[in-house]
Every structure is written in C-alpha cells, then in structure tokens.
Specification:
It is built from 14 helices and 14 strands. It has 504 residues and is of the alpha/beta class. Helix 6 runs parallel beside helix 7.
Length: 504
C-alpha cells in the first residue's frame, strides 16, 4: 500500500491520526475557530480593501480588530471546488472534486475531521455544497435550502434542474442558522464552526437592506459597460453583501455574549469572485483574489495588514498548526502563523490556480507572483463564457445587446472571443485589471519563460493531467438555460469516468 492510500485508509478510522503527542497540553491552550465563507464576492468589494461604497460596518469592524491580507488567493474561482480545496488543503485537481457540484470523495481528508477527532465540537451551517460523505466529518450540520445548489439536489429543483426557490426572507442568505449553531455547541469543548453563506450568490432578492445602495454609487471595472441596467445589477449585488454583513455582526455579538471572543480565531473569506462576466470562474484577480480577514485578539495586532502571498490551501495547514495538531503529507499548504504574529517574512513566492468545468467546459491554469501573472488556456478554442447565473444576468444581457449593436468596446468583449490566446501574461502593478496581454511582447520573454517553468514544475509536483475527453456543457452559452446534459444530482468524477463521460 502506497503512502497516500495508507493515509487515506487511516483517515476513516476514528482516532487514527491521534496519539498522546497530538493533543494540546491544556484545554485552555486550544483556540476556537470560526470560518465565515461568502459565496461569490470579489476581494475589493469591501471597505477595508478599497470599496467604500458598500455598507459593511461589521466587516469593517472585523478588519479594524484583526489583520487584512492584501495578497490572498484561492486555488480556483468556482464554488464547490474552491470549498473542497480549502477544506482538504489540496489543489482542486488533487481532490477529485475539481468540477462544479462534484462531491468530495470519502477518501479525502478534511481538516474539520482532524479537529473533531481531537475533541473539538465541529459544526457547519449554511450552504453545504460538499457532498454526502463529508457530513459525518462534522458533529452537527445545519444545511440551508439552496434550491439546487446542494448535493444532492433537493425537491426545490425541477426535473430539468431549473431553480425553484423554496426558502424565503433571511433564510435565502444561508446565514439564518449561524447563531443557533453557536448556541447548541458543547461549551466544555473547543469548537470549529464553518459558516457558509449563500449571499451574495445570484439570484438577488429585492429590498433586503434598510439602506439600499444607489446605482449611482457603484464602482464599475473597465471591462463592464457603464449603463443604468448594469449599475442596478451591481447595486443589488452590494445589497446582498450588506445582508451578509449583518449576519457577520450577529456572530461577533454572540461570541462576545458567550465570552468566547478572546480565544476565538475568526476567519472571513470568499470562495470566488463576484458573479459577473470576467469575474467568477476566471483566473484574473477578480476571480481568484479573496478578501481574507483574520481576527485573533490574543495575538493579531488590531488594524494590521499583510502584503505577503497567501494561498487558501494554506488555511488548513495553519488551522491544524494553531490547534497543535500534526500536518500530514496530504496537505499541500504552508503554515502562515508567523504572519499572524506580525513577522513580515514571505512564506511563498508564487500562488497557483486552476479553472475547470463550471456549467460549461473550460480548462486553464495560472501562476502568479507579487507582480506578474501567467495564464495558459488549454481549451483556447472555447470562449470564456461566464457561469450560467452570470450569463442570465442583466449585465451580460447588456453586453450582448451592445455587441449586437457593434458598440461594445474590445476591452469588454473578451467573454465572446474565440479562439482565445493560448497564453496570457500581465503586469499587475501597471495593469491591475489584466487588460494588456504581454505574452507576445519580447521585452517580457524572460518573465514568460520563468513562469512557464514554474507551471511545468507545479504540474509535475501535483500530478496534473489533461483529460482525454471534454465534459458536456450543461447550459447554453448564449442564454444560460439548461441543456439536456444537465443531470441532478450530478455524477461524481468516479461515476463519470466509469460511464465513459470523462476519461482520467
């Protein structure tokens, strides 16, 4: 039995990873963890990261009391694969859950199960999106009705997989059970709670905020048209963020009421970028950069910022280290505890990210250092179609209308371009929106070749392969409507390989 299979087998045996040396010296030395996960929110749509137009007083407070990470990145810009990567501390293609709605296989080791075996109360509330095999890895799961987002699909989805909303009011946020989960924990145990919002995922609710955002005040990137309909779309997205912020405030208040705040590490991040064209599912910073905030009253100096590169595969390793638990070789991340303690030393020189199937077929990879990003589009013959929810958005409809009229600028037309460039290279200091592709610029050949080599080494190290067959699109790339290929619950990777739909 090889090392990986040996570790996988052990993971299914209660207490397999635990020995006397695994347990912390005293119960009081064991910190609590609250991980709050936004669904589809860009890193720069919060005041602490530059957007002062979005009303987020509680997240502003969290940032003022903790540390903001200005260079924190996800490994993928797609909901469920991103969560699988965060929980396993592995790159998406290593989890066998790299495509949207693929469940995490039972063979994978997630960090919450390690904490549970070490005596932690481990709870999850909100959007699940992990698969059935992961439920037993938590002490308590309070899953929100997400009307087709969950695995398997519930009765809220019709036979064709169209969304039929059954939740109402605040329940649609995915946050309604957060405080109640904190109240039902065992007070004699340290705890980890995984609080996963649905907000600000589409579809958007009307009038959910007492202080609705005005379309006039939204901040648009240059790759989206500046029209009243697009501005209104953004304003509703901002409102969803504000609703999320309200629940973050309720969690912070509950921790204080339980007198648990001082020994609790609160982590806030998003699973991918905003649900707009050229954001979510892309490898641009608008897709993979995440607004990471960590509050740890006993250690983190309030109001501090960290400018070192951090990948979200690092979170599992760091949490296990802080819980005084060993980190086995399955975890690919690095421990960034030193950054939390104010040491400004680099823990990594590069981050890696991938794009896989999400509603439509596509496959791309990215390498980013502090200044440059390299992207390779393996399926460059396909257009960079936005995810189906964004394809049905008012913003994309406006882009289609302007394109039909012949008035859509080139910088706003990249979602329609086919074939795409095989390679992309961006100087993120001079071009933060990644609009000027330097891959064919002789002046940047050395940078291009250096990042190509980084990608090659990463492929070998992580055993990344390109499938021999492409996965069928489940939505129409123009209308965003389901195709006959859409099946719910979606088959796992193993079943798709068995049925010949996907080859390893």
């Amino acid at each position: 039995m090889n090392a990986f299979l040996h570790l996988t087998a052990l993971s299914l045996i209660p207490g397999a990873f635990l020995s006397a040396q695994d347990l912390p010296t005293t119960e009081r030395d064991r910190p609590n963890f609250v991980v709050i996960l936004a669904d589809d929110m860009a890193w720069d749509d919060l005041g602490p990261f530059g957007n002062k137009k979005v009303h987020t007083p509680n997240l502003d407070r969290l940032a003022a009391e903790g540390m903001c990470f200005d260079q924190a990145f996800l490994t993928i810009s797609s909901c469920s694969p991103s969560r699988a990567s965060i929980l396993t501390g592995r790159y998406p293609h290593q989890t066998d859950a790299e495509q949207l709605h693929w469940p995490i296989p039972a063979s994978q080791i997630i960090f919450p199960q390690r904490l549970k075996l070490a005596g932690y109360f481990v709870g999850a509330a909100g959007k699940w999106h992990l698969g059935e095999a992961m439920r037993e890895r938590f002490t308590v799961v309070r899953e929100v009705d997400t009307s087709g987002f969950q695995l398997p699909a519930n009765a809220g989805a019709d036979a064709r997989g169209n969304f039929v909303e059954t939740a109402t009011g605040d329940a649609r946020s995915g946050c309604a059970d957060w405080v109640s989960l904190l109240r039902e924990r065992d007070p004699s145990k340290p705890f980890l709670v995984w609080l996963a919002a649905v907000d600000p995922h589409r579809p958007y609710d009307e009038q959910i905020s007492k202080q609705s955002h005005s379309p006039d005040e939204v901040v648009l990137p240059p790759y989206h048209p500046d029209t009243p309909l697009v501005r209104q779309d953004y304003a509703r997205y901002y409102d969803e963020i504000t609703r999320l912020d309200r629940f973050v405030g309720a969690v912070l208040h509950e921790l204080e009421a339980q007198k648990a705040a001082d020994n609790t590490i609160v982590v806030f991040l998003s699973d991918n970028g905003r649900p707009f064209p050229r954001d979510k599912t892309t490898l641009y910073d608008s897709g993979i950069r995440t607004p990471l905030i960590i509050r740890w009253p006993a250690v983190v100096k309030p109001g501090t910022r960290c400018n070192q590169l951090v990948s979200m595969i690092d979170l599992a390793t760091t949490i296990l280290t802080l819980a005084d638990l060993p980190v086995n070789r399955n975890y690919m991340g690095k421990d960034f505890t030193a950054l939390l303690k104010g040491k400004n030393a680099a823990i990594r020189d590069t981050i890696f990210a991938e794009k896989n199937w999400h509603d439509y077929e596509d496959r791309a990879r990215a390498v980013r250092d502090r200044r440059y990003k390299y992207i390779i589009n393996h399926y460059s013959d396909l257009p960079a179609t936005p995810p189906a929810d964004a394809a049905r958005s008012d913003t994309f409809k406006e882009m289609q209308r302007l394109r039909a009229e012949g008035t859509l600028p080139e910088v706003q037309s990249t979602c329609f371009t086919a074939p795409r460039p095989r390679e992309e290279l961006y100087d993120l200091v001079t071009d933060p929106h990644e609009l000027n592709n330097l891959a064919r610029d002789p002046a940047h050949l050395d940078t291009l070749e250096r990042l190509r080599a980084e990608y090659k080494h990463w492929r070998i190290r992580t055993r990344e392969q390109i499938p021999k067959l492409r996965t069928p699109d489940e939505f129409d790339r123009v209308t965003g409507k389901p195709t006959p290929a859409r099946i719910r619950p979606r088959w796992s990777k193993a079943k798709m390989i068995k049925e010949g739909v996907l080859l390893p």
